[in-house]
Amino acid sequence: MKSRIACLAILYLALAAAPAWEQSLTYDNGPINGTTDAWTINFGYVVSDTFAVDNNNVGGFSFGVWEFPGDTVTSVQWSITSGPVAGGPWPNALRWPTIYGAGVANVTDRFISTNQFGYDIDLISATIPSVNGLRNGGTYWLNLQNAVVPSGDPVFWDENSGARCKSNGCPSQAYESAVGTIPSEAFSVTCSGCGCFTDRSGCTLGPGGGAPEPSSFMLFGSGILGLAGVLRRRLF
Prior knowledge:
This protein is of the alpha+beta class. The chain has one domain. It has helices at 2-16, 215-235; strands at residues 23-28, 38-40, 47-52, 57-67, 75-81, 99-114, 120-132, 139-148, 155-158, 174-176, 180-182, 187-192. Strand 6 (99-114) and strand 7 form a beta hairpin.
């Protein structure tokens, strides 16, 4: 009986240590600042930031925003392009660079704090259909616009100037459709599927382009999230 329990424990630990194939950070322009400045990403304004890729696909992104108290972002229009977006009707081939992927993403909105100006500082996260075929080591632009909150208020992308960024190619270059060159913003980009990893042993390609995340790892991750919740309650 004891040996059976020991074997099950070893098997669980082995599965828990397996890599999660779903998503991995590919670019990080640094943490949310929330105290300096922010740029409107609705009401016709577009903000564009560069990022470098160390794989050949993108599967999502996260970014920091300033919002009016009580607002929650529900969606944002995004594109990944060869250059910054200059504005105008979307898409407009005469004013837009090469588009590698584009769409409207439903997002999750997590409140972080309130800043000295009275704005809510939130973390917005989006999963998008995999944008494939990007060149390893290449530089591309993430463009955000038409962010939606039910109140119809403005939404502002947090400026952090790439402080404490952690990736090759940072700090990001940034561009605003009405102003031109601006300091860069707080965001990160994730990849998805087997292409995220140098070692793809055990990763079986399927119709979706990558292996599913092991359920045992998800259970293991839920335990970590539970612990994080306890720590959060202690901190706040």
